[in-house]
Structures are given as structure tokens and as C-alpha cells.
């Protein structure tokens, strides 16, 4: 399984997930850079994603929705703040309504995804920082660790295909 460590710290308001993939950095980067590949791994297997907008450049926007097994849709967005392809990107991640208007009742996080290559493998470190400890606690209660782990663990199968 790709996810090898998960840490959350309410004092620093961070959630950090570390994963390793049997592919080089360029291959892992392409999963995030290509909206059709991103759809295959963004969201747990039972909540497939549909990427609507995908502009992975500083100032760009990525919008998406996930569809539950019952057909209910849950939308979100990334506001891209920095890109250093293929090594890292940063973004604001938030929940939205189906018109992609931010849902201010749910927490927003600042994220940094970093990819480093070691022996033809990639180590990915995903760090999410929330404005408040309560915001982090809320997404933990919503199942973010389980959902994100299931989503990230789909990357190996995509790489192998």
C-alpha cells in the first residue's frame, strides 16, 4: 500500500500523509497534471471524481465533484498558489456547492504536495494546514484520513495500468 504514514497535530493544525510509489517523479506528477488521470485517484473508490476545470498553474483553479454510490454529488475546489513541476504544488482546498461557490461552513486547508525520487521510486508528502484546530478536527471526524488513504492507494494501480 502506498500510504506509509499519517500524522495529525491539532496544535499545529496539520495533517501529514506520506506515501511511496513504484514510479519516478515524472510519472506521479502526470497523475495530478492530467485531469483524466486525477479523476481516477481523487476521492475514494466508491466516490469517483469528475474534474470540471483543471488549470494547474499559479493562480489557476481546479474544480471537481465526487459522486456517492447513491448518486449524491459533493463538490470542491483547489486554488493553485504555487507550482514547481514535477516536484511540488501548493493550493487552497475547499468544499463548494455544485456551482463551485465555496462552502464557508466547512473548513479550508492550505496544502503542499511534494514529490521526491529515491531509487526510481517516488516519496509523496501531502501536508494540509487548517486555519483552526476545530477545522482539522471536523475533517478528521468526516473521515478525511480514511478517504484520502483509499484515494491515494489507487495510485499504484493507475501507474501499473
Describe what you observe in this structure.
With 161 residues, the chain is α+β, with helices and mostly antiparallel strands. It has five helices and eight strands, in the order ββααββββββααα. It has an eight-stranded antiparallel β-sheet with strand order 1-2-8-7-6-5-4-3. It is globular and about 45 Å long. 24% of the residues are buried. This is SRPBCC domain-containing protein. It comes from Nocardia jiangxiensis. Residues 23-159 form the Activator of Hsp90 ATPase homologue 1/2-like C-terminal domain. Belongs to the AHA1 family.
Helix content: 10-25%
DSSP strand count: 8
The average pLDDT is 96
Order of helices and strands: EEHHEEEEEEHHH
Per DSSP, the total helix count is 5
Q: Could you say what the CATH architecture is? A: 2-Layer Sandwich
Strand order in the sheet with the most strands: 1-2-8-7-6-5-4-3
**For this structure, what is the CATH homologous superfamily?**
START domain
CATH-assigned fold name: Alpha-D-Glucose-1,6-Bisphosphate, Chain A, domain 4
Rg from Cα:
15 Å
Which percent range describes the beta-strand content?
Answer: 35-45%
What is the molecular shape? globular
The stretches of 5 or more residues where confidence is low (pLDDT under 50) are: none
CATH class: Alpha Beta
Number of domains: 1
Query: What is the terminal-to-terminal distance?
Result: 16 Å
User: Structural class of the secondary structure composition?
Assistant: alpha+beta
- Please outline the major beta sheet: 8 strands, antiparallel
Task: Provide the descriptors you would attach to this structure in a database record.
globular; 161 residues; single chain; Alpha-D-Glucose-1,6-Bisphosphate, Chain A, domain 4; 8 strands; alpha+beta
Amino acid at each position: 500500500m502506498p500510504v506509509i504514514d499519517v500524522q495529525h497535530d491539532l496544535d499545529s493544525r496539520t495533517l501529514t500523509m506520506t506515501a511511496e510509489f513504484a514510479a519516478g517523479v515524472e510519472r506521479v506528477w502526470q497523475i495530478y497534471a492530467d485531469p483524466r488521470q486525477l479523476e481516477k485517484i481523487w476521492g475514494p473508490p466508491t466516490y469517483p471524481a469528475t474534474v470540471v476545470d483543471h488549470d494547474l498553474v499559479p493562480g489557476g483553479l481546479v474544480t471537481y465533484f465526487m459522486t456517492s454510490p447513491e448518486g449524491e454529488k459533493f463538490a470542491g475546489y483547489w486554488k493553485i498558489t504555487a507550482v514547481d513541476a514535477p516536484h511540488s504544488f501548493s493550493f487552497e482546498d475547499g468544499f463548494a456547492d455544485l456551482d463551485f461557490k465555496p462552502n464557508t461552513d466547512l473548513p479550508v486547508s492550505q496544502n503542499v504536495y511534494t514529490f521526491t525520487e529515491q531509487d526510481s521510486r517516488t516519496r509523496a508528502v501531502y501536508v494540509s494546514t487548517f486555519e483552526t484546530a476545530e477545522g482539522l478536527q471536523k475533517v478528521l471526524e468526516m473521515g478525511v484520513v480514511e478517504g484520502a488513504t483509499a484515494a491515494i492507494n489507487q495510485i499504484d494501480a493507475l501507474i501499473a495500468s
